[in-house]
Amino acid sequence: MRLRKTYLALILMFLYAPIFILMLQSFNASRTMGAWGGFSLHWYAALFQDRNIAQALYNTVTIGLLSATIAAVIGTLAAVGINNMRKGAKKIVLGLSSIPVANPDIVTGVSLLILYLSVFRLVGAGRLGYMTLLLAHIAFNIPYVILSVLPRFKHMNKHLYEAALDLGASPRYAFLKVVVPQLMPGIVTGWVLAFTLSVDDFMVSFFTTGAGVSNLSLIIFSMARTGVNPMINALSTLMFVFVMVLLFIINMRDSIKLKKLGG
Amino acid sequence: MKKFAVIAMLMVAVFVTGCAGQSDSESSIHVFNWGNYINPDVVQMFEEEYGITVIYSTFESNESMYTTIAMGGNVYDVLFPSDYMIYRMIQEELLRPINFDNVPNISHVSERFMGLEFDPQNRYSAPYKWGTLGILYNTTMVNSVIDSWEALWNPDYANLIFMYNSERDSMAVALKLLGYSLNSTNEDEINRARDLLIEQRPLVRAYVTDVVKDLMIAGEAALAVVYSGDAVFTMMHNPDLNYVIPREGSNLWVDAMVVPHNANNPEGAEAFINFMLRPEIAAMNTNFIGYTTANATALEMGLIDPALMEMPGFDITDEEYRRLEVFIDLGEFRDVYTRAFTTVLGS
Amino acid sequence: MKSKALAYPYIIWMIIFTVIPILLIVHYSFTVTTGNVTSFTLDNLARFFDPLYVNILRRSIVLAAQATGICLLLGYPVSYILAQKEFRDRNILLFLFVVPMWMNFLIRTYAWLTILGTNGVLNSVLTFFGLPPMQLLFNDGAVLLGLVYTFLPFMILPIYVSIQKIDQSLIEGAQDLGANGFNVFRRIILPLSLPGVVSGLTMVFMPAVATFVVSNLLGGGQFILIGNLIEQQFLLVGNWNFGSALALILMVLIVLCNVLLSFLNKETKEEAI
Predict the structure, then answer these.
(1) Contact residues on chain C for A16, CB-CB shorter than 8 A
(2) What is the pLDDT of residues A211-228, one digit of tens each?
(3) Domain range list for chain A
(4) Among B207, B213, B237, B338, which would you mutate to test the C interface (most chain C Cβ atoms within 10 Å of its Cβ)?
(5) For the stretch C217-230, what's the b/e string if a residue is b when 16 or more beta carbons lie within 10 angstroms of its beta carbon?
(6) What pLDDT score does B17 carry?
(7) How many domains does chain B have?
């Protein structure tokens, strides 16, 4: 048992040491990584004054929220439709849906770049930017929503919907009030997955963005290319704390639910 | 099926208008510049004075900047290419003539940089900074006089050498060492230069770009191929560093501001260029980034930090000038360079 | 509710954003444009068989395979230990192993930049103990380390899930029949965890073989992988035809890997039963 615990501890150290070093460095007054120049919040102040980072943060969050939400809507509708398809059609649609999941991100990125530029040439207008970035994120997010929602149909009570219709509900009303709530756990999982994928994405964004539009991943890449930058340390620390808190809340909620169910 | 067609048409329409309809307000310009090539305060001053928002992006090489512009889908208002790339872009009609009535400050630019081969009538470009390509070395880490490109092939400095990750610049180093023109279009010469660079590979720590400044200041390597402006900047931060233009000769370059053919706000672009050509502004940029300004008035008025002006590489002697060559665009032959350099990196 | 039409928006979407882009890649792979004339050609694909590019692909595959192998060696024991029933704090531990997956990928790579530099953290430690600083950045080792670090959690999670799913009574039954710990592992746990291993392998190998960020930041510009080559063709050289051909080759490679792995998966499942 001790050996096992030591092994886990070593791997955890490997996973966390770099992150903690980054966090520590973000409070280092000195620019160089090796030397400790005293405690300082200087890099955080610089971070909050940086207009480009603020803009990138805004883009990351809005694209994450919008792409996840739009993907959740289109994906849920698609899942319902796919569930009603004949076996052959279902197979084809699901097979094609898995392309963005199975393809390397770099291929998805360049293929969308070609698509955009081909359309722009055809139309004679258009530019890469926020919109192309958003569309690309929706595109790679939808399959994940579908894959999260589809398994829910197994647990669904088909008769409820028909009963609602018999009781005089309009199909739309019955769909929203009966079907959607039953699919909700899958939709939520899909949404969360889509949101995190969007926030984390670098590769697809790299190829589909344009003049002056970037997200946090892109800005970190361009800053890191010019060397170690203490502002990235501060940014990383904030992002890490944010992710930790978020995951902690999600986990707490789940375990409370479990306890309630158990009690 | 009807429903299907309607939805399809709707979605295509939304997609096209969504991307095509993104036009900026009149009060913004998109600037596309090299990384670390401007004083950020200057951008802010321009915005405050003119009420024009600057949307700023950076590139790493002339070639990547060119591809971004040439492939379309990106609209910029001001670019900062080098001489040979300006020539190519003029030839390919990717640039738009500047209305110099709106850029009176062009008069501050040194005569030396006007009417150069890449833009003989000065219709498209307004010179920004100029410099050379040379060796930056750490005096505490070298044991001999550094005055030749040959030092980069000296096994004593194995793993202590940084090369510049740019095909024209890296090939220029080898071509010059072999005694050829850095604009050679002789395939044998290119192959020899390529083989020389492949031979050098085991000695090279890495092929880098902007990061070279941090690395040299930190004392990571003995030798690095750099642009003179980066050399001046790093020497200001680390007194152990020195810069030399090797005796075999090297490249002399000029970066200038240009307006691309599809600029959205050419008036804003011209206002920006004119602002950048003000002697005080030109000096602010040079004092911040270390690159030598093409602005004669800024130098005459003594606006440049004297410490910078004393740095080797900030200015050149007549003797050095005679050893220097300006890049010219190679036309179709540039593919040979690209392949040669990819072979070096991929070997 | 019974309507298939609900999927129509998505199907159109999929045609525009998945099917057409892939067709465009195929189109550019097999054509060349001179002036205004576009004609069919196999040159783009043939060009790839230049030893220069084949070597780059080989190096990418070898590096990704090494990273995947190391992830498996390091990750399997973690999943195995975590799945042990006697572990009390298992959920918290699992949580800790999963968190790095949610960290921004760029930050995870960047972290090593600050650690491995000559004046970085690791060398400060070395100098503190009177040892000479080492050159840790810009070499194969740094890239490999970056890949392993980035993708390790993606190996741990699927293996953990598959081990945890194993029916406890199978293990107990084997023990009752006199199998020792090693035999239980070899005959029951290992074969039954293979589906997890297979999905772990895919989840690590696939992004590792196509990356250009890790090689770019930790390997220096001279470290060209197939991902770097594709990026260069599109954003530096501007040759969509050759770039598309490379993307197509990468895609085919990934499909082949997937087929091979799912085949392996099926085989082992049958054997286990």
Answers:
(1) 96, 100
(2) 889 999 999 998 888 777
(3) 1-40+231-263, 49-227
(4) B207
(5) bbbbbbbbbbbbbb
(6) 61
(7) 2
pLDDT single digits (tens) C246-261? 999 999 999 898 888 8
ipTM surpassing 0.95? no
How far is the C-alpha of B307 from the C-alpha of B302, rounded, in Å?
12
B215 and B338 fall within a common domain: yes
Q: Are the beta carbons of C222 and B66 separated by less than 8 Å? A: no
- Clarify whether residues B278 and B135 are in a common domain: no
Alpha-carbon distance of B178 to B245, in angstroms, equals 16
**Mean of all residue pLDDT scores within chain B:** 93
Interface test with A, best of B22, B29, B220 (most A CBs within 10 A): B22
Q: Which CATH number is B233's domain given?
A: 3.40.190.10
Domain A49-227, CATH number (from 3.90.1150.10, 1.10.3720.10, 3.40.50.300, 3.30.565.10): 1.10.3720.10
pLDDT for A34 beyond 50: yes
Q: Examine residue B10 and state whether it is found in any structural domain, yes or no.
A: no
Q: Which chains touch C (3 or more CB pairs under 8 A)?
A: A, B
Taken in order of first residue, the domains within chain C and their CATH numbers are 51-237 (1.10.3720.10)
- Shortest Cα distance, chain C CAs vs residue B16, angstroms: 12
Q: Which runs of consecutive H residues, i.e. helices, occur in chain C?
A: 8-14, 20-29, 43-48, 51-83, 90-102, 105-116, 121-128, 140-165, 168-176, 181-184, 190-210, 213-219, 226-232, 240-272
pLDDT per residue over C161-213, tens digit each?
A: 999 888 888 888 888 888 888 888 888 888 889 989 999 999 999 999 999 99
Q: Are B281 and B42 in contact (CB under 8 A)?
A: yes
**B5 occurs within a structural domain:** no
Picking from B19, B55, B215, the nearest residue to A127 by CB comes out as B19
